[in-house]
Amino acid sequence: xxxxxxxxxxxxxxxxxxxxxxxxxxxDKHWDKEIQLHAWYHDFDEGGAFxxxxxxxxxxxxxxxxxxxxxxxxxxxxxxxxxxxxxxEGGKIQYNWRLDxxxxxHKIYALTETAADPHVIQDKDWLIWLDxxxxxxxxxxxEFLDGICDDSYDIVHLGRNSVDYSETxxxxxxxxxxxxxxxxxxxxxTYDNREVTAYREWHDGFIFERLLKLHQYHGLKALNLTPDVxxxxxxxxxxxxTKMQHFKGNLKTKDVSLEHHKRYKQLxxxxxxxxxxSFLETGTYNGGRAIQMADAxxxxxxxxxxxxxxxxxxxxxxxxxxxxxSKATNTTEAVIERLTEYAMEKAKEGKxxxxxxxxxxxxxxxxxxxxxxxxxxDGGHSYDTVSHDYKQLKHNKIVVLDDYFSKDExxxxxxxxxxxxxxxxxxxxxxxxxxxxxxxxxxxPVMGGGITHLGVVVDLSLPKYKARVPIxxxxxxCMPSDDIQNNIKANxxxxxxxxxxxxxxxxxxxxxxxxxxxxxxxRVKEDKEMLxxxxxxxxxxxVKHALPMLMDKGLIPWACTLLDPRPIEGVSTHGIVxxxxxxxxxxxxxxxxxxxxxxxxxxxxxxxDASIIGWHAFSEAVKGGIEGSGEDALMITGGTNAxxxxxxxxxxxxxxxxxxxxxxxxxxxxxxxxxxxxxxEEGKPKFxxxxxxxxxxxTTGELLAGGQDLEKLFQTANEMDLILxxxxxxxxxxxWEIEKPAEMKGYSSWGM
Length: 752
Known about the structure:
This protein is α/β, with parallel strands linked by helices. The chain is built from 25 helices and 27 strands.
């Protein structure tokens, strides 16, 4: 007999506007009608009567039970008593999501209140929490869920190796088993009794994980669907990803800050490059993009003018459906208020922002071929509307169209009727001879599948803008999987000590020293001495090519990370015989040897009586090599090279502050013409010339993959609870300049 499932989620008005409507509609389209969704909403006006207007809201009513969280007195009392613990401690500290005891409480109250429903606890087998920023793109039935929710377990969850708490976008509770019900009861009591702030971190993921470990100690059986997840997004690596996509964090919406969506950074950089001062936009929405474009312009001018076209209050459900508009409507008055406030703030800086909003369908309101320095088309997305808007605006020298779609890594893309810009591009833009015409690559995903990009049309009288594109590299192991697995089998009995568990967080600092051209060992020494004078504990961990450079200057590394699976006598990518890198070693240096390392390296180190500690680098080849070995293996993520894996190792060992040296990810200069002609084993150029920001760099495929890893590291540093400093030059320094977390603006690179 198949199991019976109920699903539960929650959202507020902003959540409904940004992402939850997509979740609800995709649930209605793809989920088996026998599975009910409990949708808990909170902080809506009119005591929840807002939901009576279901047609206007464009949300399904069948198969969904809507309930108002504001009717749960326990939650109201919790929020009131804990309101100071909102991530700022009542405005005393900069916002820290780890110390926000309010934001995630709605999840716990929605989940536990549903579990307490007699009809659920008596009639259902499993209760599943699913975040409201999840979109279903394929049919889901009980048989599929049976393959996820193993009846022999009490709880099914998404574990993560990179941090010490699970991803809680999906959690399944076996209501047939008492341990799962007891867990839910304790989960609720932790909030009702205000015990949340007794933990080191106050978000639901941390509290869930601590309670899970406690209950496991007392016999609860938990199934981790992602024991080897290589990064933070466990959902994307689980079996759930075959049916659903979780739009984690800032992927929820395209209307986010410039810091998070690549194509809007590209938009801002174009405005700076062309020194634009006047703007025209179709699809003003809430005025956010207008402000972002104006901010970019105010870097080079004191006056900006903006004209925005939007349906605003004239829209209808029918028109939204026709134009594929999924976002909520903003009134003209609300946007005027927002832009007026912005203009007043800029006036205090001695700058002028003038704007004009035009309400209505652009098919009627956009006439007379208006002019602007910069045109951004992002209104109605039907082919007819996009075509009309472009026809009226194409005489301008810079025209950018949003939402040009391509397929994602799963070969998915939006349905054809949504691809109005693509159709226009093929029919009317692609073959223009009087303009630079190109689509800028992007990593911006689309709910339901696909990647969205900016299409650019620039008059030939202007210089061509060299867009900064995200680094997209698909690295692979430098040796066949069989060879790597043979290395592992040889090393398992050779190495006595292994990193097989996580360590308590400490306050020590790691200097991670790579061997890029900018590495200045004297600077490393000076920085270390300065911090030690301030009573800081500093440990140096280097890659093998940096080892002799440090030793020559009298700096003894605490550890040296080894990852290369190739033999010790071979020549490295630096042109050095690998064995010579270990001519001089100190017994105080611990060699962190990846299990995939060639055993000849281990043999040499053992001959020299070196201290060796083994670790497993996350990869499919390594996973295959340790399966069935009996090794209690912890697989460590981090990147494609030893320097970046060192950060993963350090994080596992409890370190959180890392200073990076020599992470150039580029060459010191331009290779000779002869070298530039060189090809790798696959017939691809060995040396690549790439643009990052406003700079060009010569690099290799291997270094470029490292650059991609760096980019990701900088983007996720906050969630990993990392404190970073970057010391160096090259492409790595430029990526740091562009991608460093806002909270780390005080840290700077040197020698750029």
